[in-house]
Amino acid sequence: MDRYVVFGNPVGHSKSPMIHKLFAEQTGQSLDYSTLLAPLDDFSGCATAFFQEGRGANVTVPFKEDAYRLANSLTARAQRAGAVNTLSKLADGSLLGDNTDGAGLVRDLTVNAGFSLTGKRILLLGAGGAVRGALEPLLAEKPASVIIANRTVEKAEWLAELFCDLGPVSASGFDWLQEPVDVIINATSASLTGDVPPIAPSLIESGKTLCYDMMYGKEPTAFCRWASEHGAAVSMDGLGMLAEQAGEAFFLWRAVRPDTAPVLQELRRQLGL
Ligand code: ATR
User: Fold this and answer.
1) Are residues 107 and 232 both part of a single domain?
2) Considering only Cβ atoms within 10 Å of each terminal Cβ, which end of the chain, N or C, has fewer?
3) Which residues belong to the active site?
4) Sheet containing 2-8, strands listed edge to edge, beginning at the edge strand earlier in sequence
5) Residues 240-249: pLDDT tens digits?
6) What's the gap between Cα 113 and its chain centre?
7) DSSP string, 132-176
8) Domain span including residue 29
9) What is the tally of structural domains in the chain?
10) Does any ligand 1 atom lie closer than 6 A to the CB of residue 127?
11) What confidence tier does 113 reach under pLDDT thresholds 50, 70, 90?
């Protein structure tokens, strides 16, 4: 049976095996998908051993940059992201590195939520790996503007510079902004501690602005609560992005696109959401 894994450390909590098992059942694909705890100091050795037999892998924290270096070739979006979350063994035995995180975000917004990003003003909060992974797919939707706001403004400036050839992208501090935007995407890790980045509520246009938190949890995240309290038209958590990035990886490996809707429903049921 074709073998797939998700590499991480820690990795026991990963929902990827459950998601891919559901995709495989739904599409009638015969495959085995499990977690693989890689040692912190030897991702490369562990991945190379796995790929003697294995067909593909997802890669999670803290190995996405190691996977980027290990891949023999990269998709354009992985190249831009500087990180790989999906490895696929090609017919010649070489490893293709892809990054499906940003595409997963865009699919969750445009397909699941039915929200077109074209011509929209998008505010991204944060300037870490999650934002870097999202920028190419977001800019491909031809928004009117993308502002990257970060606590450490220099990091936002660096990212804006790195992606400015792909569209209208600029950098900002959190408290420099007042005018409403159409979409606010929280990609900071502030939610982990229940914090909300210090941005002005006036950035939300009541009943119009869509707010998205890349995090998710049993309860609505602090950012989602903040967004709802200030009149956001929609506030979404990142569970859909999780399902969609998995769907993109499955599509890359098996050339079959799974229906993510029932899988997302099952995920929410299991999380008690
Ligand atoms: P990831 O790979 O998930 O993007 P990361 O690269 O560690 O993670 O980036 C975390 C992001 O969250 C950064 O933009 C960080 O801001 P700094 O660049 O200034 O460190 C941001 N962040 C973390 N905690 C935060 C908080 N309490 N308030 C606002 N931003 C926060």
Assistant:
1) yes
2) N
3) 64
4) 31-37, 2-8, 56-59, 86-89, 95-98, 73-74
5) 999 999 999 9
6) 16
7) HHHHHHHHHT--SEEEEE-SSHHHHHHHHHHHGGGS-EEEE-GGG
8) 2-99+241-271
9) 2
10) yes
11) very high
- Read off the pLDDT of residues 16-34 as tens digits, 9 standing for 90 and up: 999 999 999 999 999 999 9
Q: Do 228 and 248 lie in a common domain?
A: no
User: Is the domain of 113 the same as that of 213?
Assistant: yes
Q: Are residues 81 and 126 in the same domain?
A: no
pLDDT tens digit sequence for 176-217:
999 999 999 999 999 889 999 999 999 999 999 999 999 998
Ligand 1 centroid distance, CA of 130 (Å): 9
> How many Cβ atoms sit within 10 Å of the Cβ of residue 142?
13
How many other C-beta atoms lie within 10 A of the C-beta of residue 158? Answer: 16
Helix (H, G, I), strand (E, B) or coil at 242: helix
- Position 111 confidence tier, pLDDT thresholds 50, 70, 90: very high
Distance from Cα 128 to the centre of ligand 1, integer Å: 6
Distance of CA 80 to the CA centre of its chain: 14
Closest C-alpha among 108, 60, 62, 61 to residue 87: 60
Q: What CA–CA distances, in Å, run from 107 to 11, 80, 89, 129, 200?
A: 25, 18, 25, 19, 27
Same domain, 79 and 119: no
Residue 160 sits in a domain whose CATH number is 3.40.50.720
Same domain, 52 and 159: no
User: Tell me: the pLDDT tens digits for 209-244?
Assistant: 999 999 998 889 999 999 999 999 999 999 999 999
**CATH code of the domain containing 23:** 3.40.50.10860
Residues 222 and 126 in one domain: yes
How far apart are the CA of 22 and the centre of ligand 1, in A?
Answer: 32
CB 150 less than 6 A from any atom of ligand 1: yes
